[in-house]
Amino acid sequence: MIRRLHVPLLTPEDVKPHLAKPELHWKAGYSARELALAWFQAKNDFPPAVRTVLSTVPEYSAAELVDGCFEREVALGSPGRNSQTDLLVVAGLGPELGVIAIEGKVDESFAERVKDWNTTPGRRFRLERLCETLNVSVEDVADTRYQLLHRTASAIYEAKRYRCRHAMMLVHSFSPTQSSLVDFAKFASVIGMPVSSPNTASEAKQFDGVSLRLAWVADTRSVLA
User: Fold this and answer.
1) Whole-number Å distance between alpha carbons of 46 and 103
2) Alpha-carbon span 118 to 125, nearest angstrom
3) What pLDDT is stored for residue 225 in this prediction?
4) Domain that holds residue 190
5) Residue 25: its pLDDT value, please?
6) Cβ burial 132-143 (10 Å sphere, 16+ → b, else e)
7) Are 145 and 113 in contact (CB under 8 A)?
8) Is residue 13 one of the residues assigned to a domain?
9) How many domains are contained in the chain?
10) N or C: at which end does the chain have fewer Cβ atoms within 10 angstroms?
11) DSSP class of 113
12) What are 155-193's pLDDT values in tens digits?
C-alpha cells in the first residue's frame, strides 16, 4: 500500500529515513544526498541547472515548483515492489499542472539490463505491462536498463493520477563524467525520444493521453561532498 499522507521534510537529512537502504545510500558524494542538498538549497524553486534545462522546453519554461516528494513510491499495476522515484515534483505550468519524476545519479548505474532482470514469470508480467505503457516490445528494451523503464512509466502513471497532460522523466546527474549517459541515451532512442547530450530535453511524445519528455541535467556536487 502507498501512503498518501506525508510528513514535511525540514532539512536534507530528513530524507534519510525514507531511503530504501539509508546507511548505504546516504553518504557524501552519493546521489541521494546530492539530490536532497541541491533541491533544499534551491529554497522552494528548481535548482539552477534544472531551471536552465526546463527553460528550453516551451511548456516548462516558466514552471513553478508547486510540491515535491522525496522517495515517492509509485504503484506499477502489477504484483511486486513499487517503483521508488527519488523525487517527484508537481509543477505549475501556467493554468495546468505537470509531473516531473527525477532520478538522481552520481556514478551509480541504472541497475540491471532488462534481459538479465527478466528471469521469472512474475517479472515477465510486470515487464509486459511497462512495455505496453511505453509502446515498445519486451525485445525492444532487452538491452536497456530496467530502472529507466519503470521510472519513466512512473512519470506517466503519476501524471494520470494527478490528471495532468504533461510529464517528464529527468535525470539529475552529479557525475563529473556524466556516468550512465550512454545507457540513458540508448533507452531514449529505443522509445523514440532521443536525448544524446547533457542539459537537453527530448521532444514530446504522447503516451495514453500524457505528453512525455525525457531530460538529462548535468550539475556539480555540493561543497559538502
Assistant:
1) 14
2) 9
3) 46
4) 19-218
5) 57
6) ebbebeeeebee
7) yes
8) no
9) 1
10) N
11) B
12) 999 999 999 999 999 999 999 999 899 999 999 999 999
